[in-house]
């Protein structure tokens, strides 16, 4: 392939812009702010689920406590009625009086048991409520962190997008200065070699594969016409000759 040396030199500019676009694309995909926001979103989702479960536990504990308190009230009310009947003097039968006293004693024991159950239920309710309060506080903290991380992520992404648009505009200008056939060849090589199609020959070394050319290879490049597109024998990328290639220095020896 033939192309003016100026057009070949512009390939280096184009490669630099494409490499920068690749770098910006990778940076956009691997933003630490995005990873932080994603991790906080996962924590937030987990906390939402834990909050629902905690709210359910509080509701269940409160219902058990109300049930225990209602049972105590019912037993206490019955014991009060029996005590008033006994104290009213209306019961004259010794047998009935003994039976009533026995029931009052039994109700007293039952009331003590139920009051113990109420205390236990209250403890469970307090524990469940404390856990719910803790989860709510943690959720607020994580939500605040997530909001801030999203803002940082969006700011960083916007800056990258601005850079990409700037580089893309520069690329469009450079593309206009490169012959169509050379540009198509460049794009084909980019697809084959991980986005790097062209590299300068600097001090006898291909900057594409970082390998030094042999004396025979250097002589072949030196003998090539100025408008000939030369390629590295090692990595097969286009090698652009520059003032730093070292070819002139070799020619003088």
Automatic annotation (TrEMBL):
Residues 37-141 form a coiled coil. Residues 205-239 form the C4-type zinc ribbon domain. Pfam families: CT398_CC, Zn_ribbon_9. The keyword Ion transport does not apply. InterPro entries: CT398_CC_hairpin (IPR056003), Oxidative_Scav/Glycosyltrans (IPR052376), Zf-RING_7 (IPR003743). Keywords: Coiled coil. Residues 14-193 form the CT398-like coiled coil hairpin domain. This is C4-type zinc ribbon domain-containing protein.
């Amino acid at each position: 392939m033939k192309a003016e040396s100026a057009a070949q030199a512009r390939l280096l500019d184009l490669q630099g812009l494409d490499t920068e676009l690749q770098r910006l694309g990778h940076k956009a995909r691997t933003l630490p702010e995005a990873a932080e926001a994603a991790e906080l979103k996962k924590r937030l989702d987990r906390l939402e689920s834990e909050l629902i479960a905690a709210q359910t536990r509080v509701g269940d504990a409160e219902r058990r406590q109300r049930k225990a308190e209602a049972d105590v009230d019912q037993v206490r009310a019955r014991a009060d009625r029996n005590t008033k009947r006994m104290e009213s003097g209306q019961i004259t039968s010794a047998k009935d009086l003994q039976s009533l006293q026995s029931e009052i004693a039994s109700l007293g024991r039952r009331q003590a048991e139920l009051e113990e159950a109420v205390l236990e239920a209250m403890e469970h309710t307090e524990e469940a409520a404390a856990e719910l309060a803790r989860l709510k506080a943690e959720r607020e903290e994580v939500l605040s962190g997530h909001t801030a991380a999203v803002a940082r992520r969006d700011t960083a992404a916007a800056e990258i997008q601005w850079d990409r648009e700037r580089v893309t505009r520069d690329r469009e200008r450079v593309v206009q200065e490169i012959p169509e056939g050379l540009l198509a060849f460049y794009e084909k090589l980019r697809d084959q070699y991980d986005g790097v199609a062209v590299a300068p020959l600097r001090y006898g070394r291909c900057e594409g594969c970082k390998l030094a050319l042999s004396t025979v290879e250097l002589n072949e490049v030196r003998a090539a016409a100025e408008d000939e597109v030369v390629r590295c024998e090692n990595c097969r990328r286009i090698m652009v000759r520059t003032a730093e290639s070292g070819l002139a220095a070799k020619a003088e020896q």
